[in-house]
Amino acid sequence: MKNYKFILCYDGTRYKGWEHQPGIDNTIQGKMEYHLAQMTGGEIEVLGAGRTDAGVHAKGMVCNARFDTALTPEEITGYMNEHLPEDICVLETRIASDRFHARYNAVGKTYCYTCYVGLGKPVFNRKYVLTLEKRPDVEAMRKAAGYLVGKHDYRSFCGNKHMTKSTVRIVDSIEISERNGYINLTYHGTGFLQHMVRIMTGTLLEVGAGDRDPESIPELIEACDRSLAGFTAPARGLCLISVDYD
Amino acid sequence: MKNYKFILCYDGTRYKGWEHQPGIDNTIQGKMEYHLAQMTGGEIEVLGAGRTDAGVHAKGMVCNARFDTALTPEEITGYMNEHLPEDICVLETRIASDRFHARYNAVGKTYCYTCYVGLGKPVFNRKYVLTLEKRPDVEAMRKAAGYLVGKHDYRSFCGNKHMTKSTVRIVDSIEISERNGYINLTYHGTGFLQHMVRIMTGTLLEVGAGDRDPESIPELIEACDRSLAGFTAPARGLCLISVDYD
Questions:
Q1: Nearest by CB: B126 against A81, A86, A120
Q2: Burial class of residue B46, CB neighbours in 10 A (0-12, 13-18, 19+)
Q3: Which end of chain A is more exposed for a tag (fewer CB within 10 A), N or C?
Q4: Chain A residues with CB inside 8 Å of B119's CB?
């Protein structure tokens, strides 16, 4: 059997997230597995680079699956795009090395969280942004973001209370840009805990609103206590941009 | 009573078009009238610059309405954006001269029709574009568009078979641009007949697909026969960009 690597984009609005769950058929993984099974005639397991939450979007999710087919990678892409719903798209299919594993081999991920503070309402992008009432203090957010970057125990930013494994991660960069009323928070790191990007975003937005001091961040990291961090920013503003491999 | 001019944008996907109709409450005009009535406590008639079809979008629709209120124009904008659904937005409210009429005073309109021929599927813009199977011959489309421009009887491009009034209009320009897999057809004219932009777009796409010769356009205009023109391109790709006033 060949090992295929896929790059996907999807609008996560109407899905229960990436991971298939018993009795729930509207997950991205579930849709991929269903249509690959239809294509090949056999049961297929699709392994994702990570699990995006319900409502989170992706422009560069990576996954892999092992199967046999007479179709070329281009033909697989064509088949999948014809059969997948219009809010999921295969951007690329290629044959990977037999050992390739989308999750274990991932060495970095980029996420982008988008907020809107422009004129009126973001009518055409409303499902992909968080609308803010007031323009936040972006400079204060950048200062706070500087403290979040590094190699830390990010337990304060972990949505899973029962996490027993290590919560140490490396966040290489958090860039905050502003254009035409949109504020983008772009995170790059080796990996992220459950809800970590959304909790970091909520925390940075509280800094931007003046409710939290940038200088309080080191203490917050130190505390390893989720209840001290900010709110979990809504899923709709979050997008997995890309996954890095060596 | 003061006469207020509004500029609106909306995602037309889930509406039955601009114009209110008896027994149908999901029209843009109906939503505007309802919320202005709630705001002022009286019945209000909203006059639009034109009637967008069901499913057509707008980034710069103009309308006007007469009423009394203690609110400032900025406060009216704020009230409306808070109460209107998230797919309709008031971009601007201002006090207009008492004689201003959004339709009678309009001297020009710009519409944009968007097609997609890029990689995969336009997941995030899927409700605002027509996806084409094959890249059209844009140069042939531009040539055909050149013949469509001018002052003509556009009866061949009129969706209303029972149109008794003049079907003569002036189309100043049709520009076709291509970027990142998107093809935009931008129309500017003094006014457009029912479905006219969509039928011109369908005709140009047939030229682009090689099914129709650019040189056949003058004859098609001459014929004044709707059945000889191209298909009516779907509403989803069309957007009213702006309305001009002196």
A1: A86
A2: buried
A3: C
A4: 91
